[in-house]
Amino acid sequence: MLDTHTRVPVAEYDACPVTGIVRRMGERWTLLVLSLLARRAYRFNELHRAIEGISQRMLTRTLRTLEADGLVERTVFPTVPPSVEYRLSPRGAALMDSLTPLIDWAVTNSGR
To answer: Which residue ranges form the domains of the chain, and what is each CATH number?
Structure first.
């Protein structure tokens, strides 16, 4: 525990893995996309239709970021035209297992 006179260097704060995941979860569409993918796999257009107000560009950007973070897996099927499916990776599923108590707490305490 930090005493009241200890300063946290900015570089240390920015390098902290907790800071990174909290920032990622704080992005507008991240939790919603992860929550949907926690239920089942989605094709891109199906996921786009499931999220009111998100543009195709923003959904693409969010999915690419989550894929780069190792939280989402993208599978391309060799159809004409190609179809793409997104699902949580094992790492993403483990994250959602950890977030579920926080989500439950937020829902339970939302009236305060």
So the answer is: 10-103 (1.10.10.10)
